[in-house]
Amino acid sequence: QKEVEQDPGPLSVPEGAIVSLNCTYSNSAFQYFMWYRQYSRKGPELLMYTYSSGNKEDGRFTAQVDKSSKYISLFIRDSQPSDSATYLCAMRGTSYDKVIFGPGTSLSVIP
Amino acid sequence: NAGVTQTPKFQVLKTGQSMTLQCAQDMNHNSMYWYRQDPGMGLRLIYYSASEGTTDKGEVPNGYNVSRLNKREFSLRLESAAPSQTSVYFCASSGGLAGAPNYNEQFFGPGTRLTVL
Prior knowledge:
The complex is a heterodimer of chains A (111) and B (117). Helices cover 0% and strands 55% of the residues of chain A. Chain A is mostly beta strands. Chain B is 0% helix and 50% strand. The chains are: A mainly beta (111), B mainly beta (117).
C-alpha cells in the first residue's frame, strides 16, 4: 500500500461547480498537510498548508483534515477554467521530516 | 527574483550516456531537493541537501549522484543513463526556520524533461 493515495482522475466539471479533491494516507504520524497545484508543464506550487485536524479557508479554497479517518480534502467553490491543473496532496510528520507527495488528481473546469 | 531555475528544459540521451542537470535558487534557502515525476507515481525524492556541504539519499537514489556546489546550486548527475530514467525532473528549495511550520514549504523549478532512448 502506498503511503499517500489519490484518485488520479481525470475529473471534469462545469464552470461554477464545487470540486472535491481527496487523499487518504496510512501513516498516523503525519501532522502537516499541504495541497500543491501544478499547471501543465510547470513545477508544483504550494496552494494551502494545514497543521493537524480541522478546516482552513483561503478565498474559494477550503482544506479539511480528518486525522481519525486519515483523510484530507480540498474543496474549490465557484470553480474557474483557470483552476484546471493537477492537484497534489502532500504531508509530513514533524517539521524535520521529508514531505511525501500523493500522485495527483487532474482537474479540468469546462467553460 | 528568478526563484528556482533549472537547465536544460529538455534533453534526449542514448542509453549509457551521462549528463548533469543544473539547479540554482536565489532565495537564500538552506535546503534543496531533486525529485522525479512519473505518471501515476507522483513526486519521488531522489536526493536532498539540508544545508551547504551535506547531501542525503531519498526514496529513489540508485543511478544518480548529486553535488551541492554552494548554497545556491545543487546538481544532479546521471553517470550512465537508462531508459528507466526517462522522467520529468524537478528541483526544489525550502528555507524556513528549522522547526517552524513553514520549514518544509518547497518552491519548485520548471522541470527538465529527460528522455533516454
